[in-house]
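agent: user wants the structure for NIBL1 protein from Sapayoa aenigma. delegating to structure tool.
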Amino acid sequence: SCLTWLCFPIAEKTGKVLGEFCRCYKEQYGVALFNSVRYEIEGNGGPQAQLLHRKVPLEDHVIYSGNIFQYIEENKKWRNRFCVVPHNYGLVLYENKLAYERELPPRVLVNSAGYKILTSVDQYLELVNNSLPGVTSKSGHSPILKCPTDFPLILWHPYARHYYFCVMTGKEQEKWRAVFQDCVRHCNNGISEDSKVEAPAFTDAVRMYRQSKEQYGTWDMLCGNETQVLSNLVMEELLPELRSTIGPRLKGKAPERQRTWIQISDAVYRMVYEQTNAQYDAAMARCEQERPQLESTIRTDMDQIITSKEHLASKIRAFVLPKAEVCVRNHVQPYISSILEALMTPTSQGFAEVRDVFFKEVTDMNMNVVNEGGLEKLVEYMEKLSHLAFHPVKMQSCYEKMDQLKLEGLQQRFDVSSTSVFKQRAQIHMRQQMDDAVYTFETLLHQELGKLQGKDDLCKSIQRILERVLKKFDYDSSTVRKKFFREALLQITIPFLLKKLAPTCKGELAKFQELIFEDFARFILVENTYEEVVLQSVMKDIMQAVKEAAVQRKHNLYRDSMVMHNSDPNLHLLGEGIPIDWGEEYSGQPEADKRRRAKQVVSVIQDDEGALPYEVGAEALLQPSSPEPRELQETDPGVPPSSPDGVKEIREALAQESPGDSVGAEERLMNGPASPKPRADVPAEAKVPHVTPASPIPRAESPSLGTETSCHQPSDQETGEDVAPPGEECSPPQPTVTTESGERVQTEF
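agent: tool returned. relaying tokens verbatim.
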């Protein structure tokens, strides 16, 4: 009833925020288009990268797959799910491994953008208590969630639905945590940097909108694709009002009120997402429609636009620069070296760890190839090495170096809400550098293979190529880190300066509008030019600080004057060729085997101890004699646990083992099914039954779920969460699988 009463205010509030944002976006679109065309004409490239860049790093591969327990809120039961993380980093949960192998639709699809990974129920309860002030579970009352093992994994989001998982051991928990964190890191980085107009227009519009509301500095919820970011922007304003209106109306004990609040927040978030998706698409379409005419004007009048902008900048500079320089001198300059040092230490340690992991993996491969048998072993190891950068567990030692990043008092002084933005950005750079190094290594080795004779030649060639790649890595690493340090320093200091200068400068900016010719008003904005002047006031100090660090060879940074001459002039031509498929090229398999192998999904992570303990039980649990997957049960198999409070019974069930089978406890926990959401781009004959989306779905287009080849590899658009309504489930031909309807339906409000 609360939601029905609030439906119109939610739509109205969302429309108001999006209307203001779309106005900002239209303004920033013209500026971004002008900057893009000017860059294309004038060019301003930095040092050329020495390493090659792989165009499609993870095509047709799976990051990880395995079994994990999930808590199903609808029927308050823990179920064993088979979880697959495809190349787009969505979390895809199947009823069991057999359902995945039969290419049945998944139960749940989760886009993890904006989520935090928690490994403690206490951490989760603290966040839940903070989300609804004044509602805290009293001692003695059952909390909102109880976990049957000591190793939970909880996906928490400030607005959207939460997801609850657990595993049996600490080692599994660490592995899944690394996998989930990789998913969050990738999905958070959802705005494509390949877009030279739309992406900067969008991020600048978000920044300008928030600054118009007196919100400066970094924003933790700039996560996911454009629609997700805008939904977060709306919820940031809507949630306090929603909480104050609905909070006092919630009934029941504290855990029940908390649970209801989470469900309401998720439902509102989905409503906001759908409205945002439609309005943002319409705004983009209008800008795209205008683009040809705008671009034609830019190319025709480029010189006049530049002259007009420089004239405006000179006037603003004369007014702003004296005040800005005083502010920089008194409030920023004394702290630049401290901020830089705080950034350099963990970042450089992380890149050094990337180098060490790469060196170790190649060296171990070289030794194993020599000891175990030449080219055949090389192919096997190269297939694994080619995905090293996307191995969450092996890369974890690199990523965790960034956990040391602390800005201490600087964080409060410069109003930096969190360091997570910088940690995540550095980690993405680490993964990219690792993949560039691996791709360069395999490209050079592939070129050499035809010339080699015997294992000794192969061993020497691998070592020689490794040394060449490490030199290139050191150079590119220095370039990438220096750029990252400059950008991070600007991200920290510019919002601080803008906030400091706003009382004396911002109100006077309107008088400069008359200096812009009307024909050029779409490409020159007073606000943007003002920010560029403020940036120039501090840029010299930032550049100097980074330069001094490089001159002193701190953290193995190279001087800007050092240019690495390309010892491989044809290397970048090699990188433009067809991607290397080591298995296809050197496996010696018949064509039929190759085709069969191509349909298999190869997990990047290989468990050193073999399969996970309960990864083998799906087939055994789905014998014709037992058509229904077994549930988590009490001693009496006919009486399932009625609530999450039956933890003792759950623990007893988990502790039981079948005679002679050490993994029986886990195998008993297999069940659950669900259907994915059909998409508009799916042909009518390929569509699955309609369902209501349970959380935001990314925007990218891709093959339909109905096709044979794509069913088990969901696309970027298919990483929201969908739960099928009763009676609309795709079942395998045999055996027939049925489950309780409570697990298949959405929570209704």
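agent: one observation worth passing along. The chain is about 55% helix and 5% strand.
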